[in-house]
Amino acid sequence: MPEPESLERRRAALIAYDVCRRALTPSDPARRAAMRPVLDAWVQMIADARAAGVPVIYTTPVSRADAADVVLLPTDLSTETGVPSLTNAVEGTEEAGFPDEIAPRPEDYVFLKRRPSAFYGTGVAELLRMLRRDIIVIVGIHAPDGGVEG
């Protein structure tokens, strides 16, 4: 069996991408049961990062109820339909909040996203530079869907 890879903790940061109740603890019981293993994996990943002294950075997709504050680029739109591939939760609602099991702590960082990117217009890139973190671990449900474009 190969040796597990290790990270230089002093250089690493964990980005918990699109963390919100709507995604991880949906109201539909069947969907909630299906998402439970995902939430359990988040609990472990975040606990491991904190124990290792790795900063945890949350990004969560929120907007006003009328979506007037969402800024989309052409790359944010579905090529088939021309509409956004991801919709935000309404800021301040329960579904936009964090599941209790993985709620941010005072030492964590929280960034609200107005478009489907963890970096564009959020301040995350600037924080990573300030913290001198250049090894980034991104975990999330929609991360491959354009969430890491800069």
Q: How would you describe the overall organization of this protein?
A:
By secondary structure, this protein is an alpha/beta fold. The protein is 23% helix and 18% strand. It is built from 3 helices and 5 strands, in the order E-H-H-E-E-E-H-E. It has helices at 21-24, 29-51, 124-131, and strands spanning 12-17, 56-63, 89-90, 109-113, 135-140. Strands 1, 2, 3, 4 and 5 form a 5-stranded parallel sheet that branches. The longest helix has 23 residues, at 29-51. It is globular, with a radius of gyration of 16 Å. It starts with 11 loop residues before the first strand and ends in a 10-residue tail after the last strand. 23% of the residues are buried.
- Helix/strand-derived category reads alpha/beta
Main β sheet profile: 5 strands, parallel
The helical percent reads: 10-25%
Kindly state the number of beta strands. Answer: 5
Bulk shape: globular
Q: What is the radius of gyration?
A: 16 Å
Salient structural properties:
150 residues, alpha/beta, five-stranded parallel sheet, 5 strands, 18% strand
Short description:
23% of the residues lie in helices and 18% in strands. The protein has 150 residues and is of the alpha/beta class.
List the helices and strands and how they pair.
Elements: E1 12-17, H1 21-24, H2 29-51, E2 56-63, E3 89-90, E4 109-113, H3 124-131, E5 135-140
Parallel strand pairs: 1-2, 1-5, 2-3, 2-4
